[in-house]
Amino acid sequence: MSPEIPAKADAVIVGGSIAGLAAAFALCRQGLTVACLERDATPMPEDHHAAWERWRRDGAGQTRHSHILLAPLVNSIKAELPDFFATLLASGAEVLTFRDIADNTFEAPEFEPDDDRIEFLACRRVVFEFLLRRHLLESLSVAEFTFMSGADVRRLRTVPDGNGQRVAGVTVKTPGGVADIDAGIVVDASGRNSRADRWLVAAGAEPAPREDHPCGIFYTSRFYRLRDGAVYPPLNGRQSLTGGVAGVDLGYVKAGVFRSDNRTFSITLAADPEDEPLRPIAREREFDVASRLIAASRPWVDEAVSTPISKVYLYGNLSNSRRRYFVDGRPLVAGLFAVGDASVHTNPLAGRGCALAWVSAFELADVLGDESDPVQRAAAFEARNERRIVPWYEYQVDRDREAIAVNKALQRGEDPFDFTRPDGSIDEDLYRRVILRKGLRFAAREDVRILRLLFRQVSLLDPPGATDEHADLAAVVLKGYERSKTEPEARPGRAEFIAALNGRVGTGG
Description:
By secondary structure, the protein is an alpha+beta fold.
């Protein structure tokens, strides 16, 4: 039975996915009473196994795609929610540490104390979300935390405040009727399809200024379970580690294999939405053909090793986007904040969304604890997001712009890594990017310092571009680039791949 709609709360969270649950916990930790409103009306399953089988989360389109949860989220859970972390492990989630990776790569790597912070959590997203919601419902009192499913926020209630408007609460529709909740804080955690602009305009404010840059991909995912007696195949030619991930970028298509909880794993394929011959990978037959054609995933989908446990899920219309709720030194509406994809959405293939949402939620909680003035709160939260979140958005915009250029060149039959101009001169910027792209992968297997830098950045512990600050390692990367020249050309090529999708060539070997 759903709880009654509270008449009042210190804060209303709109959206009950991972971003909303993180915000709810972080604000409760500050002593605030929280009402978390989730539009999906799906009842909670009895356990995490049933959640995978039957829990519908239509409001979170990425729920059944590949996920790996990055270090800021993992470290925070271990520190703030140790009982929940133990529950995750007991429920089959796997932890991958930098020490595991380095020991699997080098004979006797030298470690640093901070290496313990580089760790990842492998868990199907729907399983993680279910366990997190259940934990908060069981560990927080009703007086602290109310969670309502089937609760659709219809409007933002505001009152005049100086030259603008201030949050006074929300109007919400549930199966039981329509009601108002009084609240001085509203947190939009409803994802990239947020309806906040509708609320703002209805309240007499301007819609949030927004910028969008294409991710240049659509992607598809499918989940599998190991057969009885089977073991996980190698990843990247090395022993498969708990929670391990392997990826290959063929330029025209990207593929990733993700170990997950309870002897499951997923495969994700991504391609340019404008590359029409590759769009069939969203269909089951073609997805299976592609998975068997790509060397990194081929042994994983062997019928003796695994069996599919899901359909092929498609995620498209992707862009890196940013909404601004603090403009010209003032909030659009005082007391309205946004976390997660409702604020900043980056290419989900990079896997940063859950961790960045978690970071932003805790930054907001700290701001609300430190500041009482509504404008100062908005300014402080904007400053924290500019420091912790926005650099990853800007970084991803640049990376996707480069990836799109590579993909388009391959579609034209050109070499996207030819940095020699027609007049014989060198395009220095492209030259540096090619060295990094091709050299880092080899260098990371030769020098643990390179491996550490890569994983610190991948896990969001260092800011984007931190590898550029280590000029002393440039020679190692350059050596790796020289080694890459002897590597056989990545197979299959685009023409071979498309022919296989169309059933014109074999899919093995």
